[in-house]
Amino acid sequence: MSRLIFVLNGPNLNLLGKRQPHIYGHETLADVERDCRRVAGELRLEMRFHQSNAEYQIIDWIHEARESAGALIINPAAFTHTSVAILDALNTLEVPVLEVHISNVHKREAFRHHSYVSLVASGVIAGFGTHGYQLAIQRAARLIDEAQAAAGAKS
To answer: Of 63, 81, 101, 106, which is the active-site residue?
Structure first.
């Protein structure tokens, strides 16, 4: 199994640190990427980190991950609650999918309580701020390690 993980970020996360800091904090997406790269490196993982405001681009990255990734971490942002297309793309993956939200979506508006992505996610991390990304990377590493051990035991 590949030790490559994809970390995908949805709409408006390019404004992290500037948009609603009382909800999302003051860290920028560049800060998040730096911290993710550090944790991934410590866990001997390769990482691709992307953000887009365009649904089709996120779907294209999911398709790319289908061919090469050992796990996928996604903060779909507003697409969480609206995108059946992203759900359909995620359903094509045969690797763990971890869903991350910076805020606790369950304490927010009712429309944010439903997630299409959760229907396919191996796990969901919400409300831990940007630290949730690091937790997701640690979990992804463990899932990859377990899958590699299971594959080794079968051979």
So the answer is: 101
